[in-house]
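Practice problem: predict the structure.
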Amino acid sequence: MLLRSLLFLLLLSCSLSAQVDTWQAIADQPIGGRQLAVAFYVDGRGYSGLGTDSLGNYYNDFWAYDPSSDSWTQVADFSGSARKSAVAFALSGKGYVVSGQDTSGLLNDCWSYDPTSNTWSAEQSLGQFSTSSSVGRADATAIETDSLAFILCGYDGGSSWLKQNWQINPRRDTIWTLKRNLANVTESTLFGRRWGAGFSIDNKVYYGCGFSFSQDYRQDVWSYNYLIDAWTQVADFSGGGRSNLCGFSLYDKGYFVGGTNGTTQSDMWRYDPNLNNWTAVASFGGGPVSNAVVFTDDRKAYMGLGRDSAGSSHPRWFVYTPDSTVGVPDVLDHVQLTAYPQPASEWVTLSGSYQRTPSSRLELLDQQGRIVLSTAILQWPMLVRTESLPAGMYFYRILDGNTKRGAGKLVVAR
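Answer:
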């Protein structure tokens, strides 16, 4: 039995290494080449639209991608003007598009898309009804969290560029609030930049890189805690200074990929907030690219469009499968957890230094990130039946409400 279990673990390890930290081509978006577009993810589908082509034409079309069928379907055209260099994000089941540049100049309008009715609605323009004014902008960065989104930096037509940090909360009467500037700098401090990238992990927003007002490529990265409205500098991006890159997060890790430092790049780096360091991972599957877009479905990242090293726009898309075991540590928030026996067959016992609460919950995920079990924790230690699960590697996490208290890995063998 021991020999069979060891052989199973070896084969499983080989299988996982062939599947994770890889990019795979998916269906091209059925448009001509496009760059400086936008993308977001809502209720099982990714959405991509707007942007410009290699000839400088602006577009207002929008398309939905279904991962289950690897297919694109055109949806309602964007109700605002055709534009490039806008930002997009998703909150509360809707997609949002803000700002950008059209043939008349810089914009600060905001629109929401409802996938249920396939309609666009005008929302409060950026900064409208706020005590602080806002101007039109392009080349900003949008970063979404569970319930909020933030619009950072960008180009406003001036020489010093923007360092502003606007928060949007669609549940409030006045949805826009100006928060503390990037790096906590004052309005008089020259710190503006455009074409940066970012991601969010837990209660923090991360923003970095970009092209500064002083015409240099930045590699500094900053963490913003929106609960206390404060920025902290973290480890510089290990890929060097660059702009026009993409950022996303999966399994409690952040990623920066592609971009340009004068030469178009394809490398990708993973940020670990616990270790405060960057690690090189699989380069983008489509080769060097800048001005691309990306969306995630909580377990994979989908990245496409953009400008290649020859200066041409393209319609290609790729999907990235991360090494999810990297994002599920055995010890989290100082809670020691143990799963025994390993490998498991019919059952496994979870134990450790965890204090159960009335809102305690266990979630078990497969290696694709799908939740295969979600149940209240009625007693601790906890016995979990595994006889109905297919053989393979799983990840468990303990939550108090929406707060993750611990996580680990579990192998089921037959």
